[in-house]
């Protein structure tokens, strides 16, 4: 069945369990490779709502790559044809406020700066005319070869961490290593269960269509959050090695969405981060308030609007909740 006919907003399999799609484009940017690091060569397609795309925006800023890789940002409403952009004509006008829930414009959503496409799906079909899966973000596009390099966030984070080091002038950004060799084993082990039980666990809970599928997801999620809470109980600022690593980036993009979205929308209501996980909450606050790469890339308007408006099977009336009153509580 072609992607034109698939119900791309259907998330659960016939057993009622959420199954995440395997990414299709797996090339990397690397020196002396097919896709070599060059300033201005690559374009990043993201959603400010998506936790997977958010990872890449954080690393792009941490590594000082904002002048190297430009960005197009989809509208937060993901409808029947998937992610869409603001049209070039609408992009010329002032965006309607988020409270109007307009499908045409939205604050911080952009047009497709490369091709002027209306939907992300067009980019996928340009890369592969017979593409037959979901149209996901992030996407790294190569302007030189006019091809899609990678649409797997974990791999994109890895090559953004090192690929451009020889071109980066800022010393601190160049020297920042989010995946240091001496910590890789511990990072990999942590990433594995955090991905299965937390990053993906909230989705498995939210999109379950049977009680069993839901409980099979939400119980490991609860245990995993307790495990993280225990890990941070010694007062550490970072998850691994006493320094910022990709493990912090990967967990942050889920935890920052937890209270405003996952607690209600994905039925993960066994505990709020800000009230029931004090050490995890402090870790979140420190990343958000102390590091602009985290705060400046976090857009709560897009986050709330996307989930509550796009998932009609979970929220048929598309009502976006009023709270929480404070997105991230200030550090004390």
UniProtKB/TrEMBL annotation:
Domain GST C-terminal: 180-310
Top-level taxon of the source organism: Eukaryota
UniProt keyword terms in alphabetical order: Cell wall biogenesis/degradation, Cytoplasm, Oxidoreductase, Transferase
Site (Lowers pKa of active site Cys): 262, 307
One GO cellular component term: cytoplasm
Residues reported in the UniProt entry to bind glutathione: 83, 134-137, 152-153
EC number: 1.8.5.1, 2.5.1.18
Record-linked InterPro entries: Glutathione-S-Trfase_C-like, Glutathione-S-Trfase_C_sf, Glutathione_S-Trfase, Glutathione_S-Trfase_N, GST_Omega-like_C, GST_Omega/GSH, Thioredoxin-like_sf
GO biological process per UniProt: cell wall organization
Gene Ontology molecular function terms on file: glutathione dehydrogenase (ascorbate) activity; glutathione transferase activity
Catalytic residues (positions): 50 (nucleophile), 203 (proton donor/acceptor)
Compartment annotation: Cytoplasm
Catalytic activity: RX + glutathione = an S-substituted glutathione + a halide anion + H(+); L-dehydroascorbate + 2 glutathione = glutathione disulfide + L-ascorbate
Role description: Active as '1-Cys' thiol transferase against beta-hydroxyethyl disulfide (HED), as dehydroascorbate reductase and as dimethylarsinic acid reductase, while not active against the standard GST substrate 1-chloro-2,4-dinitrobenzene (CDNB). May be involved in cell wall organization and biogenesis.
Family to which this protein belongs: Belongs to the GST superfamily. Omega family.
PANTHER family given in the database record: GLUTATHIONE S-TRANSFERASE OMEGA-LIKE 1-RELATED (PTHR32419:SF6), GLUTATHIONYL-HYDROQUINONE REDUCTASE (PTHR32419)
Protein name: Glutathione S-transferase omega-like 2
Protein's organism: Kwoniella heveanensis BCC8398
Lineage, uppermost ranks: Eukaryota, Fungi, Dikarya, Basidiomycota, Agaricomycotina
């Amino acid at each position: 069945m072609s992607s034109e006919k698939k119900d791309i907003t259907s998330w659960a399999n016939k057993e009622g369990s959420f199954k995440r799609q395997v990414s299709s484009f797996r090339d990397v940017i690397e020196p002396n490779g097919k896709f070599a690091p060059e300033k201005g060569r690559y374009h990043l397609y993201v959603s400010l709502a998506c936790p997977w795309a958010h990872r890449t925006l954080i690393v792009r800023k941490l590594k000082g790559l904002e002048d190297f890789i430009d960005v197009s940002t989809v509208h937060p409403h993901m409808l029947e044809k998937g992610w869409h952009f603001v049209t070039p004509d609408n992009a010329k006008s002032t965006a309607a406020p988020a409270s109007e829930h307009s499908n045409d414009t939205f604050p911080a959503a952009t047009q497709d700066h490369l091709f002027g496409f209306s939907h992300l799906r067009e980019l996928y079909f340009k890369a592969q005319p017979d593409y037959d899966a979901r149209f996901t973000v992030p996407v790294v596009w190569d302007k030189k070869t006019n091809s899609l390099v990678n649409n797997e966030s974990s791999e994109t984070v890895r090559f953004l961490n090192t690929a451009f080091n020889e071109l980066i002038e800022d010393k601190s950004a160049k020297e920042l290593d989010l995946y240091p060799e001496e910590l890789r084993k511990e990072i990999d082990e942590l990433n594995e269960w955090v991905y299965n039980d937390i990053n993906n666990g909230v989705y498995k809970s939210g999109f379950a269509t049977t009680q069993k599928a839901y409980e099979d997801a939400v119980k490991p999620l609860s245990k995993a959050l307790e495990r993280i809470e225990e890990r941070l109980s010694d007062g550490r600022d970072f998850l691994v090695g006493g320094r910022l690593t990709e493990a912090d980036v990967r967990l942050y993009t889920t935890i920052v969405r937890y209270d405003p979205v996952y607690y209600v929308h994905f039925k993960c209501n066994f505990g709020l981060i800000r009230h029931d996980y004090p050490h995890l909450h402090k870790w979140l606050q420190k990343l958000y308030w102390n590091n602009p790469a985290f705060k400046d890339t976090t857009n709560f308007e897009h986050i709330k609007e996307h989930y509550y408006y796009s998932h009609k099977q979970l929220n048929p009336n598309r009502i976006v909740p009023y709270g929480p009153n404070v997105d991230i509580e200030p550090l004390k």
